[in-house]
Design goal:
About 30% of the residues lie in helices and about 10% in strands. The protein is an alpha+beta fold. It has one domain. It starts with 5 loop residues before the first helix and ends in a 9-residue tail after the last helix.
Length: about 70
Amino acid sequence: MPGLNGGEVFQRIREYGRRIQILVTSVMDDFDALPFDDFEKENSRFLMKPFGVTDVREAIDLLLGKEMADATV
């Protein structure tokens, strides 16, 4: 994504519609440094560093409308 930041990529994806699921991850561990806040809306999730495999799995399950069947990976 040369020439674009994460917020710009997110907005371009959103131009295609709200039904596209998006998982946003932070570059830094500072919530205030995030350049956009649309991730709080439908079909998107945000993970701030540090996060682990279980956090990623839970976010994906939420995006897909599933409950985690097993907390272990």
